[in-house]
């Protein structure tokens, strides 16, 4: 007779930091669920400016977000519910569909982490990829059958991202490529690129651990991070302190400066590609460490060095996400590596502005409007009057200079963030 899996009736909350924090050690699993507390926006410069002090944090209409109503309905669902059919029928816009999928993936990820923290004492100390595993196995070819894919936690044009268990049940992120039909030459290039990425070593760059190089399971294995800046701002509505925003801003600029020092252009810098650990106010945050930001998804970056052959320094066009793209990219200009790094600076300014205002620049513009208004007419992002400190606003505006040569480099922006002590004008 097959042995049945143990039920929650036979399990209790183990003695670890997470369960002690919620005062439920020894009680039956499921008997003390963690409810999402009703939160309101605190009194801060940005919340006063946006007129939302005291409002429920799910209610983002005051912020002018296009997905505010949808987000509120999604949060009202029970955490174990699937997305209802009526949602799929009502929200037919591609942006809405993408938002629903992102929300669902985020909830899957949180539920998985919460379950591990509830049941496994070994996870008492962390739920990120440990430094020991990163240092020991980094740069290896990884067999796909060594990975246990748990939940889908992200998606994009490249494919899907999964939370997975690896050696000693370590949690990693696995990016499985959608295109599995590749030539031997392309496969070798893929392997060579991963080896280079595994050698990148910086606290503000997501670490590549290795890759699965056999079709139909071509995949990249990376360290696991809690969530993206986009999710934190626009789905979870995490309320960052000014000092935390300054730290995130500094981390992003420092990470990009490192990539540029390595002659790597990111080519798709956006809030989705900034990942965070140690977020404030989250019930699965176990670390007392400060919030940490890392850049990811530079896997399709252009590794071109001026010292290499002309073929490797060939120009390219139409890269990145239009809403975060520089005017010259939107115009479809052919850009070399140095010009692509200047385009990265434009994107960096937009990501920092999104962090500070908690809204996405040019959110209401279509692709055609972006190309016309931003690419051809030089439309710049709007900053409310007397809102940001003058030096900060000036730095951002320099990032958006029409002439790319007038933009600062990433190291300049990082140096400014090091000195930046105040973000907002005091009201």
Key phrases:
427 residues, alpha+beta, Phosphorylase Kinase, domain 1, 6-stranded mixed sheet, 3-stranded antiparallel sheet, 36% helix, disordered N terminus, Ser/Thr_kinase_AS, Protein kinase domain-containing protein, transferase, serine/threonine-protein kinase
Number of DSSP-assigned strands = 11
The CATH class designation of the largest domain is Mainly Alpha
So what's the overall shape?
A: globular
Full CATH superfamily name of the largest domain: Transferase(Phosphotransferase) domain 1
> What is the alpha-carbon Rg in Å?
22 Å
- In N-to-C order, the SSE pattern is HHHHHHEEEEHEEEHHEEEEHHHHH
Nearest-integer average pLDDT: 78
- The CATH topology label of the largest domain is Transferase(Phosphotransferase), domain 1
Structural class: alpha+beta
Strands of the widest sheet, in order across it, are 1-5-6-4-3-2
Number of helices: 14
Strand content: 5-15%
Largest sheet properties: 6 strands, mixed
Keywords: ATP-binding, Kinase, Nucleotide-binding, Serine/threonine-protein kinase, Transferase
Family: Belongs to the protein kinase superfamily.
Binding site for ATP: 176
Organism: Biomphalaria glabrata (Bloodfluke planorb)
């Amino acid at each position: 007779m097959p042995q049945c899996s143990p039920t929650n009736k036979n399990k209790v909350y183990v003695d670890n930091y997470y369960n002690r924090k919620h005062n439920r050690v020894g009680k039956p699993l499921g008997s003390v669920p963690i409810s999402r507390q009703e939160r309101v926006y605190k009194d801060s410069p940005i919340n006063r400016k946006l007129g939302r002090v005291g409002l429920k944090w799910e209610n983002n209409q005051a912020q002018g977000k296009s997905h505010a109503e949808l987000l509120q309905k999604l949060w009202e669902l029970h955490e174990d519910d699937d997305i209802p059919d009526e949602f799929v029928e009502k929200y037919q816009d591609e942006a809405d569909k993408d938002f629903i999928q992102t929300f669902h993936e985020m909830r899957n990820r949180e539920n998985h982490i919460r379950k591990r923290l509830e049941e496994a004492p070994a996870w008492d100390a962390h739920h990120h990829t440990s430094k020991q595993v990163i240092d020991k196995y980094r740069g290896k070819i990884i067999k796909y059958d060594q990975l246990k894919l748990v939940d889908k936690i992200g998606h994009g044009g490249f494919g899907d991202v999964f939370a997975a268990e690896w050696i000693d049940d370590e949690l990693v992120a696995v990016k499985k490529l959608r295109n599995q039909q590749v030539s031997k030459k392309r496969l070798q290039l893929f392997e060579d690129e991963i080896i280079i990425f595994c050698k990148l070593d910086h606290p503000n760059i997501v670490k590549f651990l290795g890759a699965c190089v056999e079709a139909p399971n071509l995949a990249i294995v990376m360290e696991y991070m809690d969530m993206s800046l986009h999710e934190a701002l626009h789905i979870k509505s995490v309320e960052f302190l000014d000092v935390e925003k300054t730290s995130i801003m500094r981390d992003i600029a420092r990470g990009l400066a490192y990539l540029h020092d390595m002659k790597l252009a990111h080519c798709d810098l956006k809030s989705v590609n900034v990942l965070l650990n140690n977020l404030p106010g989250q019930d699965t945050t176990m670390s007392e460490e400060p919030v940490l930001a890392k850049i990811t998804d530079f896997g399709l970056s252009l590794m071109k060095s001026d010292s290499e052959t002309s073929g490797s320094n060939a120009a390219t066009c139409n890269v990145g996400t239009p809403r975060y793209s520089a005017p010259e990219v939107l115009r479809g200009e052919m850009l070399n590596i140095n010009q692509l790094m200047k385009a990265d600076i434009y994107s960096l300014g937009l990501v920092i502005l999104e962090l500070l205002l908690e809204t996405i620049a040019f959110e209401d513009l279509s692709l055609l409007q972006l190309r016309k208004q931003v690419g051809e007419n030089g439309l710049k992002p709007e900053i409310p009057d007397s809102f940001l400190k003058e030096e900060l606003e000036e730095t951002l505006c320099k990032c958006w200079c029409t002439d790319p040569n007038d933009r600062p480099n990433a190291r300049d922006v990082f140096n400014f963030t090091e000195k930046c002590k105040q973000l907002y004008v005091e009201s």
